[in-house]
Structure formats: C-alpha cells, structure tokens
Amino acid sequence: MKPIGIKTKLILVGAAYAAILSFAAGEVFSRYTYEASHPADVAASSGMYAGGDLLLEIFIVCLLMIPTYFLIRIGAQFETPYTTYSKIVLIVGLTAPVCLGLLFLGKASLPDILTVLCLERLLWSPVFLILIGISRRAAQFGAAKRAFSYALLSESFSFCLSVAVIILYTPSGQL
Fold first, then answer.
1. pTM of the full predicted structure?
2. pLDDT of 127-137, one tens digit each?
3. Distances in whole angstroms, Cα of residue 146 to Cα of each of 4, 83, 95, 135, 137
C-alpha cells in the first residue's frame, strides 16, 4: 500500500479545520439567535448562559486540537519551518509570566482591557500547555526541542504559580 503524500495530508487537515469551523459557526450562530430571541431568560440566568458559552468555547477548542495535532506531526518533518514555529511558540509561552507579573504587581495601574487580556491569556494556559507538550514531543531537531522545552518550562511555571496565587489569596471556604 502506497503511503499518503504530504499534500494529501495537508488537504485532509485543511478539510478537518473547515468542517470544525463550519460546525462551530453554526453552533455559535444558533446560540446567538436563541439568546437574542429570549432576552428575558438570558437576563434572569445570565451566569448559566455565560457558563454554557464557556463550555461551547472549550468544546470548540478541543475539537480544533485534533487537526492541530496532525498538523504539528506533519510540520515536524521540516526543520526550518518547525524551528520558526518553535520560536513563535516560545514567544507566546513567555507571555504567560508577563501577564501573571502584570496582574500581580501592576494591578492598580493596568487599564481594564489589558487586565481582561491577561486574565484570558492565563485562563487558556492549560490549552497552551497541551499544545506546547504535543509540539515538544513531535520535535525532531535540536533547536526546536530546546525552544519548546523553554516554552514548556515558562508556561508550566506560570500555570503553577497562578494556581498557587489563587489558592493562597482566596479566603478559606470560597474555592
């Protein structure tokens, strides 16, 4: 049996992304139209609707991780693009400690939009940890492995530190 070529694999990954994004667009649109047609229900149970929106976001991100896994596996075969990707991931991984530092040290002087962006970045830290871990596992070249290792170290340190801050600074009984 003849192995599948790179071009065919990339087409399949692209088709998977297209299918997932069309599904996600349909679900988000359906959710939006329901919430727009029932504003009293949304106002009465706004927290429940926000929780449902968050669960839908998490589900969509988990679905998007499937073709991303295969895209990473395909990309790991090429040294130059994968090394460039590893450097980009390292830069993104270094934003977690920056966001944590900004929130913890400069909370009083941060604009609201920057505070929200930093909190969102830290909220999605587990997803970035998984993505960096998959990328590190697939890496075949020294420079890429090193960059992914540093990104993984930075991201995991920031994640653990943010969890520790939440545990230490939350009044007992409110977790």
1. 0.84
2. 999 999 999 99
3. 30, 10, 18, 11, 11
